[in-house]
Design a protein that fits this description.
The chain has 2 domains: 91 residues, no CATH class; 72 residues, no CATH class. Helices cover 57% and strands 9% of the residues. The chain has 8 helices and 4 strands, in the order βααβββαααααα. A hairpin with a 2-residue loop joins strand 3 and strand 4. The two termini are 22 Å apart.
């Protein structure tokens, strides 16, 4: 079973996030967000089945839901997986680019797949691999995610998008993400994926 991602705009959710961030929410965000969803939906449908199928097959995991709701919001600190939420800052050229938002969406969907298959120790949000237990929480939670995402980048997209993701991890104030990419490069994404598969198989 391959799920379908349903993109949703909720003005109450969006405005509440703006309020929490002490930013002004504008009524114009409704129309611009709905229009953006139409564009995002069109591009995402072109790759949805093959990306989600490859994601689950490569990780040796199964999708648990037929449909996954993804909220699209105008303001947030960053995108996240539960509830699945992606951000499009209307004045940020990068966060209006469909390809960039799709890369973020895939990142968050890998989280969804891992959590639904109980890969994370939810008490501490640590991965299954004790070898990395001394790494920061954010690093530990992204090593195998980045390994799988690299596989998808190389299979369906290109090295430039992969390089962009790694560069952003190094430039943004997201401690641990860059270290996770370093570990992926050190160990090799294919080797880490094999370890992930063995962990799923031997649970």
């Amino acid at each position: 079973m391959i799920p379908k991602v349903k993109f949703v705009y909720s003005w109450s959710y969006d405005s509440t996030l703006c309020m929490l961030l002490k930013r002004k929410w504008k009524l114009t965000y409704v129309k611009s967000s709905v229009n953006y969803i139409r564009r995002l939906n069109k591009e995402w449908r072109k790759i949805e089945k093959k990306v989600l199928s490859e994601m689950a097959k490569t990780a040796r995991m199964k999708w648990k839901d037929k449909q996954i709701t993804c909220f699209v919001v105008s303001h947030c600190i960053h995108s996240f997986s539960y509830p699945l939420t992606v951000i499009i800052r209307h004045k940020d050229d990068r966060l209006r680019r469909i390809d960039y938002v799709i890369d973020i969406l895939i990142h968050e969907l890998i989280h969804v797949l891992f959590v639904s298959n109980e890969i994370y120790n939810l008490d501490k949000y640590l991965g299954f691999d004790k070898e990395f237990k001394n790494e920061k929480m954010a690093t530990n939670g992204h090593i195998y995610l980045h390994a799988l995402h690299k596989h998808l980048y190389l299979k369906f997209f290109n090295k430039n998008r992969l390089a962009r993701d790694i560069a952003l991890a190094k430039s943004k104030s997201m401690p641990g993400y860059d270290r996770a990419w370093e570990i992926v490069e050190e160990y090799g994404h294919e080797n880490l994926i094999k370890r992930l598969r063995n962990a799923v198989k031997n649970r």
